[in-house]
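FORM 12-B: Structure-to-Sequence Request
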């Protein structure tokens, strides 16, 4: 593992409920429990992957950590300070330390700005010295030729646009980056180039990543540790190697059993999950996975399983995890 176990971000009991309705016309109020009681640490220099099916709360988690959205409750400590308690001024000053890379670089880049303007904008906003020098260093680092600085986003391919988006995110020399599905919109052949670029930049710029993806192969390739999410909570968290070698939560076991193996001589028993993910408006009581879990017992319907360290650095939220360990 790349980490030296020096904590950069610590999340404690983070919860986000969205409230829908409750207006004059739409009286019925509904609560979407997007993220509930999340606790985890991101170590300096590592890539922590977050994986899970659509709607499980990955993007909400990323946005809450960067305070792009206000939490319902909980804490997010960045270098020991609770970001959720920052005033607007404190947040503005700290913002340069944490940045986001988006899934769709086209939507996140102003189409009327040239590459030079796009990357220089944060430098100007924060009155960074030697802007031209920094700009040239950034475009060089992400592999955009200098002759392209006067061009507009529509003149680039998806992969090149993501390179521009990455350069913009790195402009202010951040310490922590949340990358929300940064390669999901790209052709498979381009995905590896961007992921390798992100790995190189991590070493060059001393970055820590929270990398969100729904693709298990992508997440395995880039992550040092991986958190698996289901319906707004973490069900398993451990090193990338351990997760793929010995997944302990029945949900992770099912996800991993569904990854295609390129070698036709090797077969793997696929664990089929029945039913759809329940709605976060009305999540099941007890273990939220019990409606789809092949191992569910009575206790699973009644008690919420805590995320417990069941072997060193391996956290699992399942009442019956000891049986998987045998
Ligand atoms: N602004 C919002 N208002 C109301 N509900 C929201 C809002 N943002 C997200 N949600 C709901 O919160 C839940 C978690 O959404 P989120 O976008 O975090 O999931 P995700 O894991 O990123 O999914 P995907 O893989 O599709 O990107 C979903 O049920 C979603 O519909
Ligand atoms: S607690 Fe029960 S329902 Fe939940 S994952 Fe474990 S065995 Fe399945
Ligand atoms: Mg998302």
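FORM 12-B RESPONSE
SEQUENCE OUT:
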């Amino acid at each position: 593992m790349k980490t030296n176990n020096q904590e950069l971000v610590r999340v404690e009991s983070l919860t986000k409920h969205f409230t829908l309705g409750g207006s004059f016309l739409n009286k019925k109020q509904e609560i979407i429990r997007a993220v509930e009681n999340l606790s985890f640490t991101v170590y300096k220099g590592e890539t922590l992957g977050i994986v899970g099916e659509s709607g499980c709360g990955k993007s909400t988690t990323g946005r809450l950590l960067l305070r792009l959205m206000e939490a319902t409750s909980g804490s997010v400590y960045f270098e020991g300070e609770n970001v959720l308690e920052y005033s607007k001024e404190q947040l503005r000053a700290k913002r340069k330390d944490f940045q986001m890379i988006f899934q769709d670089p086209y939507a996140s880049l102003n189409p009327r700005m040239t590459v030079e303007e796009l990357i220089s904008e944060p430098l100007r906003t924060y009155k960074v010295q030697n802007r031209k020098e920094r700009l040239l260093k950034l475009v060089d680092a992400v592999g955009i030729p200098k002759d392209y600085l006067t061009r507009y986003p529509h003149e680039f391919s998806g992969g090149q646009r993501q390179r521009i988006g990455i350069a913009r995110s790195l402009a202010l020399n951040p310490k922590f980056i949340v990358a929300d599905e940064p390669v999901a919109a790209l052709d498979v052949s381009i995905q590896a180039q961007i992921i390798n670029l992100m790995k190189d930049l991590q070493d060059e710029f001393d970055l820590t990543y929270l990398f969100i993806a729904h693709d298990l192969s992508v997440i395995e390739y880039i992550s040092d540790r991986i958190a698996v999410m289901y319906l707004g909570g973490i069900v398993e968290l451990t090193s990338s190697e351990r997760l793929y070698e010995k997944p302990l939560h029945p949900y992770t076991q099912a996800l991993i059993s569904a990854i295609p193996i390129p070698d036709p001589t090797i077969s793997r028993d696929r664990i089929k999950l029945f039913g759809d993910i329940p709605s976060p408006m009305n999540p099941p009581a007890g273990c939220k996975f019990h409606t789809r879990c092949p191992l569910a017992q009575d206790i699973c319907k009644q008690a919420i399983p805590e995320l417990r360290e069941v072997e060193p650095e391996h956290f699992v939220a399942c009442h019956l995890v000891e049986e998987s360990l045998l």
